Amino acid sequence: MKGKAKTARAALLEGATFRCVFSSVAAVNRAIVACERCARLRAYCRRVARDRKPEFATSVYWGRPVPGFGDAAARLLIVGLAPAAHGANRTGRMFTGDSSGRWLYEALYRYGFASAPQSVSRDDGLMLRDCYISAAVRCAPPANRPRREELQRCRSYLEAELRLLGGVRLVVTLGRIAHENWLKAAGWWQRLRPGERPRFGHGATARLPDGTVVMASYHPSRQNTNTGRLTRAMWYAVFKRARAVLEQGAPPERPLRVVRPTTSRSNSRLAGSRTTARRARVGGPVGRGLSRPSAASAHRTPGPGSS
Known about the structure:
Blueprint: H1 2-16, H2 25-34, H3 39-51, E1 69-70, E2 76-80, H4 88-91, H5 99-110, E3 131-135, H6 148-164, E4 170-174, H7 176-186, H8 188-191, E5 205-207, E6 213-217, H9 222-225, H10 232-246, E7 257-258, H11 268-282
Parallel strand pairs: 2-3, 2-4, 4-6, 5-7
Antiparallel strand pairs: 1-3, 5-6
Helix pairs in contact: 1-6, 2-6, 6-7
């Protein structure tokens, strides 16, 4: 137990040293590709790239950490779990080369966020518009299960992206692990008490105190899509709503839950009474008449499933 705590603490300290290094999204991506911080993940990715899958026997695998991909001025950020062993670990682009990617890019194209409905390789010419794709972990993990310390080590890259992607107004998290890791990287996990944090559930949506909207979705992994847990209609509804939230004057299909942090634990009783009073005024737990920042006001700068 003591050894595990020491490992987790070392991972956090190691991550802290990376926080002020990057001046651009391109610099973050270069550091991601060169990263060797998780020996287990690097060994696994190299082994997969060496042995390959019979279906891709003639392919040259990427076999390195996978950088983020998309529009550096994006308002929409998508956060997945990790590269798939024979998907992004093979192609070198997020959500490219596997069934999850086919679901994602088809939906992005359908709702105007991608230039083509399929992502085949790093050099296929596909471009994202107003959308950036990231992940909680940048190396393919064995059995799609990254360890806690691996998530902690990799989180500094997501933190750096969030600081540099200054135009992001809407975040779509794919799966519970991605959802919780985005909250931690963005600082909301620490600032909000457990009952105030945006919950994970397919279609669950919340607006945070800074105006950012977070929408949760089941991951389009085969274990979700093949079993009917995630259907095309459910999946399309996420991106239809995302487009509506981003368009000026287009309200979401249902009201957003508003998350407001309390000032301290000592004020919890007072905060509870204020929340009760506020609910009475607006007629329920969800505020009415909430407005989104206009597109013109946005600052424009770049279990388990895998991406």
